[in-house]
Amino acid sequence: MKTMLKTAAVGAALALSAGAAHAEFGETLKTVQERGTLQCTGHNGSFLGFAEVDDQGAWKGLDIDMCRAVAAAVLGDAAKLNIVPISWAQRWPSLQAGDVDVIIKASGGTFSRDTELGLQFSRAYYLGTTKIMAHADLGLTSLAEADGGSICIPAGTTIERQVASYADRIGINIEPVLFEKTEELREAYFSNRCDLYAQWGPTLAIARSVSEDPSAHVILDDVLAMEPEVMIGRQNDDQWIDILNWTLSALLFAEQEGVTLANVDEMKANPPTSEVGKMLGATPGIGGPLGLSDDWAYNVIKAVGNYGEIFDRNIGAGSVYDMPRGMNRLWNDGGVLFPMVFD
Questions:
Q1: Global confidence as pTM
Q2: Phi, psi (rounded to 5 degrees) for 4
Q3: Which among 33, 112, 167, 311 is least surrounded, fewest beta carbons within 10 Å?
Q4: Is 62 inside a domain boundary?
């Protein structure tokens, strides 16, 4: 019996070792490290608050900072990043062709994308609802009152299906007007080509806030869907998805434990808990299993700060958009986001 147990234990250890060795050489990680830059999605224009170009021609936004976080984790430097401007419809073929290494572009995790397109998702880094904005002079209080109207919708997104499904459910006919570029979509709505504008809730709120007269537009109470926005990689590269998930967890855990861009050096030198010390690489062991250096999470926080800092400067109180954080607060602050455990 002892011999059998010993043999089983050795076999298990070898299996774990083989699994770790296999995971260490995930194709995406190897490609990115050999290339020396991360190819991450931008937008074909400006997707305000999430992927936009500033006056100096530099990319900024919540999604862009998530790209920078992954670059810092994998390559030790957030600047080793190439933002690839692509449309909504180009996301999937660009990933499959290897033009980008990861999609971080306000993209939801759906069944068909998983099973039909060969994609694999991280945990949600943002939760958003699909909403409708209407011209205030129409006097609408709900979408049910818009029968026979027209609605601007971003082409190549899940919002097309969400609008059609919701319209069927409430028994109205509505004419979809599709645009691939966000700027064209906004222009069409604000120039009265469409009665309504269907978009991701945060995008609508931002578009309304920067319009010439925000009071001329109303966001209806209807909630068409709630969608988890995820980072997306190619199927069958679990190692890469692990890296995406642990990068997100580092951002959330840092916020939870009060680790910020300003104090991360002090926290690494004098960690308040063993978990913080492990995450920041003060205690060895966090890098090897992921194929990264032990200071990968430290590099992330040093580059972009924690999740709360990313949210605040891009779309929250520290930005021109001043959006409430809502359900995207941490679990201990009334929200639903939480990190995995750094044990």
A1: 0.84
A2: -65, -45
A3: 112
A4: yes
| Residues 219, 250 share a domain | no
**Same-domain check for residues 193 and 254:** no
Could you give the CA distance from residue 223 to residue 130 in angstroms, rounded to a whole number? 6
- The pLDDT of residue 183 is 86
Torsion of the alpha carbons at 193, 107, 32 and 302, rounded to the nearest 10: 100
pLDDT along the chain (343 residues), means of 10: 37 36 65 98 90 93 98 98 94 96 95 94 95 96 96 91 95 95 91 95 88 94 92 96 98 98 98 97 96 98 98 94 91 97 94
Predicted confidence (pLDDT) per residue in 235-264, tens digit: 999 999 999 999 999 999 999 999 999 999
Cα dihedral value 178, 181, 184, 187, nearest 10: 100
Identify the CATH number of the domain in which residue 53 sits. 3.40.190.10
What's the number of domains the chain is made of? 2
- pLDDT of the residue at 246: 98
Report how far residue 183's alpha carbon sits from residue 252's, in angstroms, rounded to the nearest whole number.
32
Expressed as residue numbers, the domain containing 210 is 129-226
pLDDT tens profile 121-172? 999 999 989 999 999 999 999 999 999 999 999 988 889 999 999 999 999 9
Is 306 a member of any domain? yes
189 touches 178 (CB < 8 A)? no
Residues with Cβ within 8 Å of 32's Cβ and at least 6 positions away in sequence, in order, are: 38, 39, 74, 75, 101
Give the whole-angstrom CA distance, residue 175 versus residue 173.
Answer: 7
Instruction: Check whether residue 99 and residue 64 sit in a common domain.
Output: yes
The whole-angstrom distance between residue 73's C-alpha and the CA centroid of its chain comes to 16
pLDDT at 3: 38
- Residue 91, judged by CB atoms within 10 A of its CB (0-12, 13-18, 19+), counts as buried
Distance of CA 312 to the CA centre of its chain: 15
Tokens for 104, please give them. Answer: 């971080």
Q: Sign (positive/negative) of CA torsion 261, 262, 263, 268?
A: positive
Q: Is residue 111 part of a domain?
A: no
Q: Within a domain: residue 231?
A: no
Tokens encoding 257 = 């434990």
